[in-house]
Amino acid sequence: MTFQKFISQKNEEAMSHDKEESAVILLLEHVTGFETNSLYMKMNEEISEELVNKFNEIFDRYLNNNEPIQYLIGYSSFYGRDFTVNSDVLIPRFETEELVENILYRYDDYFKGQKIDVCDLATGSGCIAITLALEEPNMTVVATDISKDALNVAKINNEKFNAGVKFIQGDMLKPLGNRKFDIFVSNPPYIPDSELVDSLVKDNEPNIALFGGSDGMKFYNIILSGLKNHLKKNAIVAFEHGFDKKEEMEKLIEKYFPNSRHECIKDLEGKDRMTFIYLGDLK
Ligand code: GLN
């Protein structure tokens, strides 16, 4: 059978399982080691039985074992780069690319050209920290996570992209010692514990990276309550959060940073997804 015929058969199989057709090419690239272009060059060639077997084994996990494509192929695209991922880290989400983009805009508005210190708390795969360090070389970035296993993945990505991020393991603000930052960012776990979550997510992604207490606000509370000591005089704090948490974020900000200027930013789906706080002269 030719590659072409094989691919169209597998596309149909994916569709009949209500799965993404696009996974077929990604998995085929993964098992052959070919890039998309060289795969297309081979469309009229015969596919070997060995490749068919290798493909079917992993395709079966995709179709019938409910495993995310990103963990099967071992990477996920974020801000134009392929980040290594496995089941020790959250799969980076589109919304988080927007968080990074908004931080980069505000760096230009408030700090342009200055060398600044940035902290990414609960870094997971390292996608936020590493992207910031690569997109803005004036940022010296420190990233933390409670999970050693997650940090191992983040370190792989840091080396792969030569991003120069420094990692420290520990719970929330504890590993930061007396470090102070100009920009502090976090996309902490924020799904309320009792919320029904798609089994593809809940059964595969680390639950420690998903759930944020009964109301999903647990980690913002912990972070904001101690954050003052870790911010320089003029600082920006940037959070990603649940789409229905704008008001609760405002309440927390009023409590810990009264009278500070802050804004909630919508994601591309029009949902309230990020909150930024501006401190000191950035008011
Ligand atoms: N900061 C990482 C990300 O945005 C991990 C977030 C998390 O584990 N909740 O992908």
What class, by secondary structure content?
alpha/beta
- Number of discrete domains: 2
Regions with pLDDT < 50 over 5+ consecutive residues? Answer: none
Q: Which sheet architecture does the biggest sheet show?
A: 7 strands, mixed
- Identify the quaternary structure here: single chain
Q: Helical proportion? A: 40-55%
Ions and ligands? glutamine
Strands of the largest sheet, in order across it?
A: 5-4-3-6-7-9-8
Q: State the separation between the terminal residues, measured CA to CA.
A: 65 Å
Q: Tally the helices.
A: 11
**CATH class descriptor of the largest domain:** Alpha Beta
Topology order in helix (H) and strand (E) letters: HHHHHEEHEHEHEEHHEHEE
Q: What fraction of the residues are assigned to beta strands by DSSP?
A: 15-25%
Characteristic key phrases:
283 residues, alpha/beta, Rossmann fold, 2 domains, 7-stranded mixed β-sheet, two-stranded antiparallel sheet, 11 helices, 9 strands, binds glutamine
